[in-house]
Amino acid sequence: MLNVIKEYLVRLGYETDVQGFNQAMRSMGDLEKSTGKFALTTTGQFAIAGAAVTTFFTASSLAIAKYIGDIARADYETEVFARRFFTREENARAFQSSLKALDMDMHDLFYTTNEQYERFMKLRQEALKLEAPAEVQKQLQDIRDFQYQFSRLNMTLSQGRYWIAHYFLQFMGNDEKQVMQDVTNFVTNLQENLPEVAEKVGYALAVVARLGTVGYYAVRDLSRALKTMLNELPDDVKVALAAVAAIMAVYAAGPIG
Question: Is the pTM of this model over 0.70?
Answer without folding.
Answer: no
